[in-house]
Amino acid sequence: ITSTTGEVVRQLFLPLVDEAPDYETIIPRLAESWSFSDDRRVLTFRLRDDVVWSDGVPVTSADVVFTYQAWTSPELAWEGATALAAVEGVEAVDPHTVRFRFAHAYPTALLDVAAGAVILPAHAWGELPFAEWRENADWFRQHLVADGPFTLASWTPQQEIVLERNPRYYEEGLPRLDRVTIRVVPDQTAQLTQLLNGQLDFVFALSPDDVPRVERAPGADVVSYWTRGYVAVAWNNRGELFADPAVRRAMTYGIDRETLVGSIWGGFARPIASPIPPETWAWSEEVEPLPYDPDQARRLLDAAGWVDGDGDGVREKDGRPFRFRLMTNTGNRQREDALVLIQDQLQRIGVAVEPQALEFHTMIEQLIAGEFDAAIMGWGIPTTFDFRYAYHTAEIGSTNVVGFSDPEVDRLLEEARQVEDLKAMGPYLDRLQEIQQELQPYTFLWQSKRLLGIRERVQDADPDHLRELGDLREWWLAPEGR
Predict the structure, then answer these.
(1) Is the distance from CB of 326 to CB of 355 less than 8 angstroms?
(2) 108 or 5: which carries more pLDDT confidence?
(3) What is the dihedral angle through the alpha carbons of 122, 123, 129, 133, rounded to the nearest 10 degrees?
(4) How many other C-beta atoms are found inside a 10 Å radius of the C-beta of residue 79?
(5) Longest Cα pair distance anywhere in the chain, in angstroms?
């Protein structure tokens, strides 16, 4: 089994609140309640009074203030600090009341300051200056206290992490498991073998080809959920080939996404038309993926001046053949397979594709520098539905790798951040999806399902797109073969 540091951290420390996988519901955790002032510039949390650290020290509002100080410390330089730009201050009103003050009201304030980000122990970790945090990983393990359902029993780098039940955890009867061992098994084939023979109870990733074998195996099963992400072709909107929206639309008409999904994913993915997936409240029912229509693609290219004048099968314009490099990252079989299929499909409309698979960090460097023609890449979907990273002009040279710039989109993204609550962003997001459909800065390919392997003895496991281990504190083991 493999795991990320974040999954382990969530078992050791509580956040103020959690998000439910429905993209709407907020779940109380360390905070039992919260409220905004009438102008929504003050957010007050009331903390539970029955939560203690594993050394018996009560968890208080001082821990929340300390955590905020860590988040925003220039010396620590936490990468998520930008989400707190509108926070003017945090104060401990009393041991179980903490108050955040904002420079202005905005719809994602609660999510930005409270959802998922764990609260840290001030009494245990306040002894070490923030400037020394990044250089002292061992110090934190030596001074570790937890208020989550588990504590850290042992950690062997590159081998395994062992969690054990936190006897001071506030929810009576939880966690149900006394011990959880998370093993590092880098080879996916070895993971599958160990799952099937019962050495592992849970693996984080299966390929579509693995699913029939797991489903046939006694005592094993497959769990799946829609990922919080998408895969798209990013067109370099600043380049000579793809600066014209009509050409980008032609590319989309020329790619058979249904065939891609069927051939590569075997039913475990679906074509999408925007960065907002259909299972969310923010998805617009008015936007459907453009159909596969090579004739329409040819008409658009003809009108844009790209014609095959010499009969060699490749269109030209002003003496330049329509030939481009389509890159993706190595080690991702689905994307590498898509390279080959897209090359064949676009060849049918007179466009020559040169597939290129690059090491991930090399590809990212080229994307950020704008030194590419097109790339098959993936993005995570923020639960805040803030898409400035992909579409805003100010992000060109950073996360807006395609160099897309549109005054209306910039205005929509900025105005959406000024409404009072998340649902009020709906009309702005609807229009954003319409513009994406019109201008096609990206050709969205698919949203896939995450496939996980699990032994049938594991009960009440509920992994989702926010937490691969779900509510691990609820899991329990039944006898095999019951």
Answers:
(1) yes
(2) 108
(3) -70
(4) 7
(5) 80
Residue 1 pLDDT class (50, 70, 90 cuts):
very low
Residue with tokens 């988040």: 71
User: Model's pTM, two decimal places?
Assistant: 0.90
What are the DSSP E strand ranges found in 144-292?
150-156, 160-165, 179-183, 202-203, 220-226, 229-235, 269-270
Q: How many CA atoms lie within 13 A of 401 on its CB side?
A: 22
Distances (CA, A) of 52 to 11, 31, 56, 214: 15, 13, 6, 42
pLDDT above 90 as % of the chain: 90
DSSP assignment letter at 419? S
- pLDDT digits over 271-314, tens only? 999 999 999 999 999 998 999 999 999 999 999 999 999 999 99
In whole angstroms, give the CA distance from residue 32 to residue 16: 8
Q: 140: part of which helix (H) or strand (E)?
A: helix 137-142
Instruction: Give the C-alpha separation, 449 to 208, whole Å.
Output: 10
Q: What is the distance of C-alpha 257 from the center of its chain?
A: 22
> Strands (DSSP E) along 335-441, which ranges?
352-358, 374-380
Q: Quickly tell me which residue has 């409220």 as its tokens.
A: 35
CA nearest to 446, candidates 286, 239, 208: 208
Q: What is the DSSP letter of 382?
A: -
